[in-house]
Design a protein that fits this description.
The complex is a heterotrimer of chains A (340), B (326) and C (302).
Chain A (H helix, E strand, L loop, with lengths): L1 H29 L5 H6 L5 H11 L5 H13 L13 H36 L4 H13 L4 H15 L11 H6 L9 H7 L3 H38 L2 H8 L4 H38 L5 H10 L3 H29 L7
Helix pairs in contact in A: 1-14, 5-6, 5-10, 5-12, 6-10, 7-10, 7-12, 9-10, 10-12, 12-13, 12-14, 13-14
Chain B lengths: L5 E12 L2 E13 L4 E5 L6 H8 L7 E10 L2 E2 L5 H7 L4 E4 L3 H4 L6 H13 L3 H14 L5 H6 L7 H13 L5 E5 L7 H18 L2 E6 L2 H7 L2 E6 L2 E7 H7 L3 H9 L48 E3 L1 E6 L10
Parallel strand pairs in B: 3-8, 3-9, 6-7, 7-8
Antiparallel strand pairs in B: 1-2, 1-4, 4-5, 9-10, 10-12, 11-12
Helix pairs in contact in B: 4-5, 5-7
Chain C lengths: L19 H11 L1 H18 L1 H4 L3 H5 L26 H37 L1 H16 L2 H12 L3 H28 L2 H8 L4 H38 L10 H8 L8 H28 L9
Helix pairs in contact in C: 1-12, 2-5, 2-12, 5-6, 5-8, 5-10, 5-12, 6-8, 7-8, 8-10, 10-11, 10-12, 11-12
The chains are: A mainly alpha (340), B alpha/beta (326), C mainly alpha (302).
Amino acid sequence: MQRFEYLIKRLVLAIVVILSVMVLTFFISRVLPSDPAAAWAGSHPTAEQIAIANQRLGLDQPLHVQFWRYFTSVLQGDLGTSLQTKQPIARDLRTYLPATMELVFCAMLLAVVVGIPLGVLSGAYKGSFFDHLTRLVSISGVSIPTFWLGLLLQLFFFSQLKILPLGSRISTATAINNPVTQLTGFYLIDTAVTGNWAAFKDTLLHLVLPACTLATYPVALAIRMTRSNIIEVLSEKYILAARITGLPRRTILFNLALKNAIIPTITVLGLSFAYSLTGDILIEIIYSWPGLGSYITSAVLAIDFPVIVSVTLFVTVIYVFINLILDLLQAMLDPRVSLE
Amino acid sequence: MSQALLSIENLSVRFKTYAGVIHAVNGMTFDVRPGEIFGLVGESGCGKSVTGLAVVRTLPGSGRISGGRILFHGEDLAAKSEAEMQAIRGRRIAMVFQDPTASLNPVFTIGQQIDHIIRHHTGGDHETARRKALDWFNAVALPDPQAVYDTYPHRLSGGMQQRVMIAMALCSGAELLIADEPTTALDVTIQAQILELLVKLRDQQGISILLITHNLGVVAETCERVAVAYAGQIVETGPTPAVLARRLHPYTEGLLAALPTAVRKGQTLQPIAGQVPDGLQPIAGCPFHPRCGKALPVCAQVNPALLPVEHADHLTACHLYTEAAV
Amino acid sequence: MTTTTLSAEPAASPPAVPSERQLIWRAFRQDKLAMLGVLVILFFVLTSLFAPLLTPYPAQGAGAPNIIEKFKAPSAEHPLGTDYLGRDVLARIFYGGRSSLTTGFLVVFLAVLIGAPLGAVAGYFGGRVDDVIMRITDVFLSFPPLLLAIAIATALGSGFVNTMIAIAITWWPWYTRLVRAQTVSLRERYFIEAARSIGVPSFKIIATHILPNVLTPVLVQGTMDLGSAILTGAAINFIGLGVQPPQADWGNMISQGRIYFIERPWFAGSAGVAIFLVVLSFNLIGDALRDAADPRTRRGEA
């Protein structure tokens, strides 16, 4: 079966890519820094610490032996220990991942629900006032630095209007009085499931600003890309042919062109996810959001290499798999795709 | 002489581009009678395809009808609103294009596509539409109609795709089919089959066909009457045998003489010198005169009118015949 | 049977039909917003270049503190106020532009320099070479963009040059993919076949036939990327890598001004406005260029 073979092929490719990613991250952490041991020993290391680091890292060993040790430990789930928190990194990841995912998910939801429809309408009614307005908004959205936008929104909604909180996932009052039971780590789900509506409302309020700030770039990008997809589809010969058979504009747009435009929209989804993920790092800084972004930022400032490498690897693996799923989705939707 | 079904009168179409204004069609006049296959023949750039698109009012980009009339059953299509045209498209006038692969939507099955068309024009449920589609697939001689109905366009050969296009074009009851180079992208043997199909459909259903092509052989075989186009105008029109035999206009003569079959072995080929005008620079007088070996001084000044010569049904636009005009 | 003889009079030479480049330029010029963008970019580039001459406070722009005057709101002497160390913010903006703008330009330049030839080679030779290059490209593209840049920048250490290298390393694969796709379609064209059949060496074909033909899409993409590159550079500087204070960069100006933002927004605010205007301009220019370069989207109405 062609589709099945394609799936297997892509899966194998993804695994090869992940292995290469591991090699690359390893290279970045061991080979790039001028003195890897010093880098690993933390800031201002003493000679003794460097010596210990050298031995710990096995830097006296040949490179491929080092990699093998790294590789096997990763496979066993041991991602090393953070130099700062002194905790196993794997555990830290589990703590911080849900916060990040909750934010990223909300941003992506906005991108899909707001960005794509606006892009479709903008492209279908190209040249109209609505189109010009949307284009202005979307081009501004991809031009504004999100971390700066976050500051502006905080100034406006927190300082001036006083209706939204400054940062964090929940207020300290709620954490004390109506604490969230840690089920999934997704506060919205955990509070809803346990009926903790006070905390639910609080969580929601805390999510608004970060999610909207993070969503700015993906929404704007989604509008721009979807618009150009629709315009491209509408300029195809088969749309002209459909028009000549007398089908009304509405039918052509919503029953025909939309399906043609869905396939490139998968690409839009992929990019929305990518930019949500990367922008998240900056958003977490601004809003003091306790997620992977904050984790990796403090690691960067402290030059905590084990964390930087492991988080990069971890996030990249997630990213690779999401992209794989989107690729397969795209292949399944397009009747023309058989084996590559 | 029977009343014309479609009458193009002095049609002009212009495109505004950054390179300037292009007059793609510049005073085209001909008519198509009920039940006939009419050939509109000319080289690339003579405006024949644009004329076809102008009739159904789906000109691309910045194209606009800048003059003339398109009379269909006596009504001027050039003056109709978009809503009125939408009622005409498919139902009364249909069109097929050169590249059937590009004209079929790749993500829908053939059945889904033709279903939309049939149900839009004649209503009814899915099953009725399906049966009607299958009837039409039989009429266009598709070997396994149900299989074609269920499949995706890219699985069909070029010839089968074109048959599907013809079915999709005619299934709503159109009386005029504009076929823009319907066989150019197909193999020679398939070309002949498609042409036969068009003739058969005309014979059985009384559909009139405006066949746009650059291929004189196609015209000779299938068209009762023909118009030769050059630089957006008609230079000669009349019954096909008469036009091909008499070759009144120097361009017609040049076209026929340039055919490889026109020369015997050992003789040199006879192209027409010069190039087709690009539509940007207006040419004073007759558009063909720079390339015409028989040009008279008046040809550089006055664009000759399309007038009957020898008998009322054979017209040409050439100063050589002005005294002889009927 | 009369025949058409060759016409005696030669055809009059036609007036010049504009070349493709001229058409693109004409269409581009029509987009007023894009032209406005060009002016904005010019403004920032010139003020950055001539910063020491334009501001009465060159030392402060470069970083010298002036604590007495700290936190002054915008006034006649300091049009954008002073920052937390009393430095004139306008001067800091001019000096910051040097870092931010250069980062953008050099990142794209490096990415094209590395990526485009690789893509041409991959697309032209195909086979093994293509596979290897594309696999490497795939690996680099597997990373979420900013993350890889952060990891590399941390590894290389802070500083202006290291940041640029780090970002450029994450950017080149896009150009490889772009140029490869263009090359593959060009390769099928007959004029390449013709050149090969008369024995033109491969690298010469690539240099003289392929690269000039991919120039337009690369230029369009590059222009659009300039904005993104500046945003990425600002982000890396914001996080704390890259240019270190007291040296100015729009990104680190925002991070430095962050804690004071609610009370005294003018220094972080101005830096953000500067980034926004520059990136917006590049995006407007890039969009207009892309629409002008594609004959289908080129606006036909003169």
